[in-house]
Amino acid sequence: MRAYESRQSRKRTAIEVFAWPTVIAAVSLFGLIAALIGHGGYDMLGALALLVPVAAGAWAWMTRRR
């Protein structure tokens, strides 16, 4: 097996490829809107929602294969 090939070399569907990026984008959009138009609790929800892409990036960085 070559270094650039995955363990499973089956084709993935568009839903499998874009499901998590779509969820992260939707949560980020919610966070931006909540932080801009809300006060109090909405600010906290917005901040937590904006941490999702940061957490996803950190998780991906920590679990990457070398």
Descriptive notes:
The chain has helices at 14-37, 41-62. The protein is mostly helical. The longest helix is centred in the middle third of the chain and has 24 residues, at 14-37. The model has no long low-confidence stretch (mean pLDDT 87).
Total beta-strand segments: 0
SSE string, helices as H and strands as E: HH
Give the end-to-end Cα distance, rounded to a whole number of Å: 15 Å
Mean pLDDT: 87
Largest sheet: none
Query: What's the Cα radius of gyration?
Result: 16 Å
pLDDT < 50 stretches: none
Task: Give the percentage of residues in beta strands.
Answer: under 5%
User: What is the count of DSSP helices, taking H or I runs of 4+ residues?
Assistant: 2
Give the overall shape, derived from the CA principal axes: elongated
Structural class from helices and strands? mainly alpha
Query: What's the helical proportion of residues?
Result: 55-70%
